[in-house]
Structure formats: C-alpha cells, structure tokens
Amino acid sequence: MVICYLGVGSNLGDRRRNIKEAIRKINALKGTSVLKASRLIETEPQGRMHKQPKYLNGALKIKTNLPASALLNYLKKIETELGRPKRHPRLNPRTIDLDILFYANSVIKTKNLVVPHPRLFEREFVMRPLSEIYEVN
Predict the structure, then answer these.
(1) How confident is the model at residue 88, as a pLDDT?
(2) Calpha distance 46→93 (Å, rounded)
(3) What's the confidence (pLDDT) of residue 50?
(4) Which domains does the chain have, with CATH numbers?
(5) Distance between CA atoms of residues 49 and 109, nearest Å
(6) Angle, helix 15-27 to helix 68-81, in steps of 10 degrees
(7) Separation of alpha carbons 25 and 17, rounded Å
C-alpha cells in the first residue's frame, strides 16, 4: 500500500456533488481508501479560462495498492463517468478534474503521467487544500 495525494476540482453543474461523487468512487476502487479530504475552496479560473464559472477545489490523501498507471486509468474513468469527455481540451470547464499530485515518494515521467504534478507548486488552488492534509512520512 502506498500513500498518494490527489487534486480534485469542478466548475460545471453541481460542483460540490460532483466532487463528493468522485470521492465516493475513488473510495470504492479495489485496494483503495480515502484517508483525508481537505476543505473545498472556491477559486477563479486560471489563465485564459477567466470567462468560466468559478471552481471548487480540494485535495485528498488516499492509500492504494494500485500502480500509478492503473490509478490514473481509474481516475480518467471516473472523470468520464461524471460527465467529462475523454478528449476534453486542457483548461476548459469540467464537471470533474482529478490529478495525481504525489504517488508515494515516486518521481514518474511517462507520456501519460508526470508525478509530482508538474504545475503543483505554481497553483494556490492546489497548494492551499494540499497543505491541510499533507503529512511527511
């Protein structure tokens, strides 16, 4: 089992319900449990996204026995189940956005996954919720 930290966000539909449902689905993954969830904060869209609805953002601490690539695949499946198109352009509005911020103490660089998340430290909407739940192992 490894400890991972995930970012969660939504700016379409019932944002709070979208995030709660994503957390429920993550917790239901085989060999995975949500240990902590940050408070949700409302934030302005970033960059060229300024004409979109505001986001609700948070962070999760989970424990999983899934490899990072499998976890990513399940998170993408959950996004699709909650109404996010598979080929959704980056920076567009979304019903749910799930990102792997940290996967244990691993550094991962593949075509589909970079961990730690590459823009993690540039984003207050990630750092604020993450700082509530992050624990040094």
Answers:
(1) 53
(2) 11
(3) 58
(4) 2-133 (3.30.70.560)
(5) 27
(6) 140
(7) 12
Question: For tokens 């823009």, what's the residue?
Answer: 119
How many other CB atoms are there within 10 angstroms of residue 51's CB atom?
Answer: 7
Rounded CA separation 98/95 (Å): 10
> In the structure encoding, which two tokens stand for residue 38, read together?
């940050």
Please report the pLDDT score of residue 85 as a whole number. Answer: 64
Cis peptide before 116 (omega within 30 of 0): yes
What is the secondary structure of 8-48 as a DSSP string? Answer: EEE-SSSHHHHHHHHHHHHHTSTTEEEEEEPPPEEEPPPGG
How far apart, in Å, do the first and last CA atoms of the chain sit? 13
What does the pLDDT read at residue 47?
A: 63
pLDDT-flagged residues of the chain (< 50): none
